[in-house]
Amino acid sequence: ELLDQEGFAASYNFMHLPADLCTGQTFFYAFVNLTTPREARRFHHHFTGFCSWPVPCSSLAAVEFSEALQGLDQMVERYRNSPMMHPLVPDDLRPAVYSDGARVAFPAPSRRIPAPRLRRGRKGSSRRLTFELA
After folding, report:
1. 79 burial via Cβ count (<10 Å: 0-12, 13-18, 19+)
2. Half-sphere exposure of 53 (CA within 13 A, CB side)
């Protein structure tokens, strides 16, 4: 919703906001794939230092470009067989694919998906929200 409210509806085609599977609490970063290099630059400019969160928060956003994965195809391949796509993972915590601003079905896995392993969170983790652009 935030990206859409900030003028980026239909500008992204993949999003994953990693979170603790037990609590649903996010880890304060997201993976977002923008549809064009121009939109990626606009997103970078808009969200670097962003602080107009919909809930009270003093954190500033940072935006980083991913060197590991680029593009929708690579993001889908990274996650389609991931434990994050297992039926035990709530749908709102799974990576998502979008088309023209609407969520669409994630491509089917190509093999059996293992159940996620649950780990305890780290103490003292950073409170800065970081978007990694693919």
Report:
1. buried
2. 12
According to the model, what pLDDT value does residue 132 have?
46
Count the Cβ atoms, other than its own, within 10 Å of residue 49.
10
pLDDT at 28: 87
pLDDT in the model for residue 100: 94
The token pair at 16 is 């994953």
pLDDT in tens, 59-104: 999 999 988 888 999 999 999 999 999 999 999 999 999 999 999 9
The answer to whether 112 and 10 have CB atoms below 8 angstroms apart is: no
CA distance 33 to 40: 8
CA distance 14 to 99: 9
Residues 6+ apart with CB under 8 A from 84: 16, 93, 94, 95, 116
Show contacts of 100-104: CB within 8 Å, 24+ apart. Answer: 100/10, 101/4, 101/9, 101/10
